[in-house]
What we know:
The structure is a single chain. By secondary structure, this protein is an all-alpha fold. The chain has helices spanning 2-9, 17-20, 23-31, 40-57, 62-75, 80-90, 96-106. Helix 4 (40-57) runs antiparallel to helix 5 (62-75), helix 5 runs parallel beside helix 7 and helix 6 runs antiparallel to helix 7. The longest helix has 18 residues, at 40-57. The chain is built from 7 helices and no strands. Helix content is 68%, strand content 0%. The protein starts with a helix and ends in a 5-residue tail after the last helix. The mean pLDDT is 94. It has one domain. The protein is globular, with a radius of gyration of 13 Å.
Amino acid sequence: xxxxxxxxxxxxxxxxxxxxxxxxxxxxxxxxxxxxxxxxxxxxxxxxxxxxxxxxxxxxxxxxxxxxxxxxxxxxxxxxxxxxxxxxxxxxxxxxxxxxxxxxxxxxxxx
Length: 111
């Protein structure tokens, strides 16, 4: 997943498809169709997606940033707030809009 974002999506935003990429993978946790406490595949996939999102968050691309925050906001991983807080501390030059979106993602308050 990291390579797809680094080599394609960071250079070619493809309209809204990059922003919505993670919806197809993460939205089940947002709606409660998948739950971490169920263990098994739900837990393993959530952790795998979180690790991929954490890697993609490090790509210097506004498109990747928006898509990653969108995915984190739907995945509901327990380490999301910690990851986003650390990212915000390390990137003080983010715009007010980017910071607000990141904070909303950390609270799982994205549409």
